[in-house]
Amino acid sequence: MFMSVFFELVEIRTKLASIFPYFIGLLFSLYYFGQVNWFNMCLFFIGMFVFDMATTAINNLMDYLKAKDDSYQQLTNIIGKAGLEVSKVRNMIIAMITFSSVIGLWLVFRTSLLLLPMGGLCFLIGIFYTFGPVPLSRMPLGELFSGVTMGFGIFFITLYLNIYDTGFLSLNFLNGQFLLSGNIKELIVSVWASIPMMFTIANIMLANNLCDLDQDILNHRYTLPFYIGRKQGVYLFDLLMYSCYIVIVLGVLVGIYHWSMLVVLLTFPIVKKNVSLFNQKQEKATTFSVAIKNLVLFNGSQIIGLLLGLLLRK
Hints:
Layout: H1 2-9, H2 16-33, H3 38-66, H4 70-76, H5 78-82, H6 86-110, H7 115-128, H8 142-163, E1 169-174, E2 177-182, H9 184-211, H10 213-218, H11 224-228, H12 230-253, H13 268-280, H14 289-313
Antiparallel strand pairs: 1-2
Helix pairs in contact: 2-3, 2-8, 2-9, 2-14, 3-6, 3-8, 7-8, 8-9, 9-12, 9-14, 12-13, 13-14
């Protein structure tokens, strides 16, 4: 009983948003850079997954505490529905963040001090995404921060943990001075390869905010669709999704990916159908899942494309 409530509190079904950047980063590291540090990967996966659960629990806790609508608090939020004690939820969140922090520091010790600001920034954004007097999720910044932190942050840290010793990006200290150096081409390639994850993850937040627009306004939560309007929000949803295909095709043309990555194009008819369905109606119960389905389809096909690239390149 406890585990089922806990899994609902941390919304275990939504963890795909962090798992895909991790696995794509791992495979891209193996395909493009030719190396993987498996022990670092195991440590990072555990720490990342637990921290992702903690941020979701923070989100549910803050939504419960700040809800202006009693029906939302008692009937919709898991804390109200399950009758959870706020103090116990707080203790679970603190335990998960502490555990993730210890793993993060261990990885810093195993790699480089440069990982500390990278991971620390992701930690701060993850915590203050829903925590504090003015959380990022209640501002027109949620899509930006969720997409960049998870789509780029997880992907980039995964790469760094595998290739930190190659000169990809390094921080050196000498005679009281520090020198930050890196390979510009490889950094640009890494950013480019992260764009589809950034866009598909941002679209989950955008779809959620579009579906909850009326409820959010009632609860004084003014997200991006409130400022740009529902129509423009839907247009942005379409633009982000379709741009992912352009990124992959251009990546193949300039040599970032093997031609096998064009397998993602096979998902286009289904994704287009899903996008059209969402354009007609933005409703949590019926069409919000479109954003998750598109993320799974597109990023799942990326994994297949990278695996094929590894096999066909040999």
